[in-house]
Amino acid sequence: MTTVIIAVVVGLVLVVAVVAMAGGRRRPAPDDIASFRRQIDALSPEARRQTSDRMKPSERAASGDDGVDDT
Amino acid sequence: MARDLAIDLGTANTLVYMKGRGIVLNEPSVIALNRQTGEVLATGREAWQMIGRTPGYIVAVRPLRGGAITDFEITERMIRLLLQRVGVSRFTRPKVVICVPSAITEVERRAVTDAARRAGAADANLIEQPMAAAIGADLPIDEPVGNMVIDIGGGTSETAVISLGGIVALEAVRVGSFDIDAAIQNYVRREHGIAIGERTAEEIKVAIGSADPTPDENQAEVRGRDLMTGLPKTVLLTPEEVRYAIEDVVSSIVASVIRCLSKAPPELSQDFLVRGMYLVGGGGLLRGLAERIERETEVPVKMSNVPLEAVVLGAGHVIEHYEALKGMFMGARR
């Protein structure tokens, strides 16, 4: 009886391990693709336009106008 | 809540970009200290004006050399003062992205992030200067094409090939515009027998320095101290002499660009012929340098529209899109 229970438990553990391994192999792709896509989108010219437009505070500082550093 | 910051901690100048506001500080990376008490007397432009003109008890120093921290404690104090000037206090602790040379060692990397954290940053991450420069110079690094950027700073010159948001090839040398100034200082001392300071050497470089002959060349009067008599003396310096003086430094920069070109995969190499290479950084403003690199590599060289601000603008863009771009930090998975 004990032998049968041990065999069943070992069998269950093996099944769980196989299922977990198979799931683990399938899972990472969507996350990696999404994060790479987000990175590439954030580097697009459209995304960068706003940052380039923020050159203006420096130009003001260079011309003698007060910037944050003087406040 | 503090606004997050991007810092271009350069050997020559430090620029700070504040999230949502743009560049809020642009100052020389210099700090003046009382030698006896260790007290900070001035930072930035005010301290820069003191270089070589201080009494014995004051020392005006650049805490970074060759893009690396030479004095950890002074750098930390300088960063703390810079952060205070842009409104960071012990109650407002921002996230900070700092641009550093790509050839930085693990120890130097830790020194920079530790200095920023101790100075008040909640979190400090590093990004390679050429990568930040490429973003700031508006190169299409999101596309699968070869983008080449040459960043010539005060203490380092870095050339990188970037495609699809990652560095494909990189070449860095710890040589920059301060080495050009030092070469001029040495030449004038050796050939004319007069001693000049680093600020005078820089003025000579800006006035008549060039890497290749240019159409409008003039001589310059140089004033210094006669090494024999100890008296003030004036000599005339020609652009040819300055070119000769700085030749080794210029050759070293050009050679590193050539090495980087040779490391690039062939598919990307052909893009450079059409798209050209982009020059950023204060050292890139040396007259004739773009022409010299173009002549020796046979690849077109273009000057960025924002050569001095490209690096901090790129890091600023990363801080604006922190979550999406945190994979670009040094040490993060690419």
Set out the fold topology.
The complex is a heterodimer of chains A (71) and B (334).
Chain A (H helix, E strand, L loop, with lengths): L1 H25 L1 H15 L2 H9 L2 H7 L9
Chain B lengths: L4 E5 L3 E6 L3 E7 L2 E4 L5 E4 H5 L9 E4 L2 E2 L2 E2 L2 H14 L9 E6 L5 H13 L4 E6 H8 L10 E6 L4 E7 L2 E8 L3 H16 L1 E2 L2 H11 L11 E7 L5 E6 L1 H25 L2 H10 L1 E4 L8 H9 L3 E3 L6 H11 L1 H4 L9
Parallel strand pairs in B: 1-9, 9-10, 11-17, 17-18
Antiparallel strand pairs in B: 1-2, 2-3, 4-5, 4-6, 7-8, 11-12, 12-13, 14-15, 15-16
Key terms:
heterodimer; A: mainly alpha; 4 helices; 0% strand; disordered C terminus; B: 334 residues; alpha+beta; Nucleotidyltransferase, domain 5; Actin, Chain A, domain 4; 3 domains; five-stranded mixed β-sheet; 38% helix
**Helix-strand pattern of chain B:** EEEEEHEEEHEHEHEEEHEHEEHHEHEHH
Task: Please state the average pLDDT score of chain A.
Answer: 70
What fraction strand of chain A?
Answer: under 5%
Oligomeric form of this entry? heterodimer
CATH fold topology of the largest domain in chain B: Nucleotidyltransferase, domain 5
